[in-house]
From TrEMBL, chain A:
<comment type="similarity">
    <text>Belongs to the heat shock protein 70 family.</text>
</comment>
<protein>
    <submittedName>
        <fullName>Hsp70 family protein</fullName>
    </submittedName>
</protein>
<dbReference type="InterPro" id="IPR018181">
    <property type="entry name" value="Heat_shock_70_CS"/>
</dbReference>
<dbReference type="InterPro" id="IPR043129">
    <property type="entry name" value="ATPase_NBD"/>
</dbReference>
<keyword id="KW-0067">ATP-binding</keyword>
<dbReference type="InterPro" id="IPR013126">
    <property type="entry name" value="Hsp_70_fam"/>
</dbReference>
<dbReference type="Pfam" id="PF00012">
    <property type="entry name" value="HSP70"/>
</dbReference>
<keyword id="KW-0547">Nucleotide-binding</keyword>
TrEMBL record, chain B:
<dbReference type="Pfam" id="PF10816">
    <property type="entry name" value="DUF2760"/>
</dbReference>
<keyword id="KW-1133">Transmembrane helix</keyword>
<keyword id="KW-0812">Transmembrane</keyword>
<feature type="transmembrane region" description="Helical">
    <location>
        <begin position="12"/>
        <end position="30"/>
    </location>
</feature>
<protein>
    <submittedName>
        <fullName>DUF2760 domain-containing protein</fullName>
    </submittedName>
</protein>
<feature type="domain" description="DUF2760">
    <location>
        <begin position="70"/>
        <end position="190"/>
    </location>
</feature>
<keyword id="KW-0472">Membrane</keyword>
<dbReference type="InterPro" id="IPR021212">
    <property type="entry name" value="DUF2760"/>
</dbReference>
Amino acid sequence: MSDIDRNENKARYSIGIDLGTTHCALSYVDMSASDGEKTAQGVLSIPQLTAPGAAEERDLLPSFLYLPHENELAPGDLTLPWTQERKFIVGELARSRGAGTPIRLVSSAKSWLCHPGVDRRAAILPSDAPEEVERVSPLESSVRYLTHLREAWNHAHPEAPFDQQDVTVTIPASFDPAARELTAEAASAAGYSRMTLLEEPQAALYSWIQKSTGGWRKQVKVGDVILVVDVGGGTTDLSLIAVVEREGNLELHRVAVGEHILLGGDNMDLALAHTVARKLASQGTQPDPWQLRALTYACRAAKETLLSDPTAEAVPLVVPSRGSKLIGGSLRTELTRAELTQILLEGFFPQVDASTRPVSRARVGLTQLGLPYAQDAAVTRHLAAFLGRQVNALAEIEGLQHETPQGATLLHPTVVLFNGGVFKSPLLVERVMSTLNSWLAAENAPAARLLEGADLDLAVARGAAYYGYVRHGRGVRIRGGTARAYYVAVESAMPAVPGLEPPVQALCVAPFGMEEGTDAELPAQEFGLVVGEPVHFRFFGSSVRRQDQVGTLLEYWQPDELQELEEIEASLPPEGRTPGEVVPVKLHARVTEAGTLELEAIPRGSSERWKVEFDVRGGVSADQGMGL
Amino acid sequence: MTDMNPGFFGRIGIAFGVFFGVLGNAAFAGRVQRLREAPEAPDFTAEAPKPAAAPVQPAPSALKESSPVAALQLLGLLQRDARFIDFVEEDIANYSDGDIGAAARLVHDGCRTVLREHFTIKPVRTEAEGSRVTLQEGFDAAAVRLTGNVVGKPPFNGQISHRGWKVEDTRLPKLAPSHDASIVAPAEVEL
């Protein structure tokens, strides 16, 4: 979709979609009824099945897909307000049904979508389903959630068809180009014709800005560096956004994003449940898998009570029996504050030094399926690593008036914005703030302030809808472009040494900070592509090398400077050429309006452009031991 | 007309129940004592109880039958989220208060979830209980029940003994036409 089409066909609504690991939400801004910082915004109540044959409207759509057996449900049980044709279930019923029959439940599809060890377009989910269950791909399950949201919108707003509105779908800031591309592909397959991607921490900040209705200019000032800590159900996402001045106006500039950390609120509930289960086992009661799931729900509620009420010392946990005897068969235990502090505060948010880094070790009880969950559960250690890695990130930002203090070992944020239901707990907010402020105090930096008034559950969807609105020039925008520079591997021309891999050089093809809708220059270097045969290149990203331009050739880099991403695959079709012929091409990068990175191969002396694909079949990384 | 008083074997059961009840429960013993001291209770053998007058005042032409579907739906929700039927149907006589209390927590949590999710419930009177209020002429007699010394004409002055509850919004799930609401909890068979 080109810019011209967007302008000709004016959308009435800007729709924001939070496509989360555990929940989806849809918010919208009525652009015709909004003016400047006064916006008319709503959250769509999403009709979904909550029991067989019963549909209800909820603000959140649980991101679960259930693939029922043909005899499992009565005819008509899957009737939605707009269709009777569905053969699968998404939302609340999928979640509750799947608790009893996990072999037919697809969960955490989003984490699978960015799992480099598996083929994301292959039907692999549910991963432990028996043969006869027809599996779906991580891509397909995302398509189904997005389709449900589109249909729900069209059912509620027949006067404003979904495909004529501006749609923003959020992704973790840490998503690599392949995962972004897959999300865009899923949206397109779900019938989203005008779609833009937005990073979730940015969406959270947009939501906060919108909620302040202009007051944000008083709460932050030029030179402030905002740290967004977003702990969702399945992922932890960190971003840094600087407040700069340009032509007399305050402007927001996203300067860095964190690594992909597969660690969220669900891991915390699971860790608590396993602790309580061990306690029960030591008393001679072994909870079965069904009871363990019920225990996880009970622990979540108990956690929320303990975290919100500092005077409570213990919360009783009751796991009902499965049969109709409620009292006789129930398991009774309790979650104490000491256990909560031990597991949650010390396990996930330990008070650590700024110099600590996440550790890799075998863990028990935190992982479920084959997903590459974060090895270290400590969010604060991941935060220390992020701020340490980005210590020099502010050096090049124009209009910030910032000087990195001498001897600083970490970047110094001045304000913090939290997002995610986990931070409804003042205890956890306080723990992160005190840990961060102890690091800052050690370097004689002023303590960071907390940005109040964030909406922790729906901020991402709301912020995404607001972003679609400010894209039309009606509010402050966060700038920053891509948060990584990208490189392809070039084998250096050096005589082969037996037993040694030839050294690899990295050629920059896309610099840091490319904005949506811009093209990178053409590098001078050419690659030989064999006509009719796919050629693979190793592909790298760096979140710290901000100066490299297109054509920069790296011979040496620190191990944590460049991360290897999935390979890219280029192929030249044989039309008009001899198969087997070697054609010199240049690699050209552009960032689309939707926010995805596109690579093209341009043959020498020709205007042809061939798309270079991200290889999302998971082969390479699996070899590296990242996978199952 | 059947005799409302129990037969011989029924009386044996009651006698045993009362015997142990009086021994084990001081409050029950007190109630039995008051019953024995009280003037003769109305005799059920003689006349059939009269049906209570219907509480609909103006011209009760026909009472409308309420649809059982919504009631069944609510029952299903209470069972699903609060194990309500399991709790009420279970014989609690042999469990300790601790066991029953633990289950009651679960039922309470679940019932609260159902109420909060499917109804918007607000007090009828926003004043604190115990405070004095004046009811003007034409007050809504369905929303405020007068008790005690009900004489004279409005405005009435009185004290709120219960704030009352009103349901402002009901959000019950929409049902597929084929859905059988009478199954409030399906049997579960694990394969």
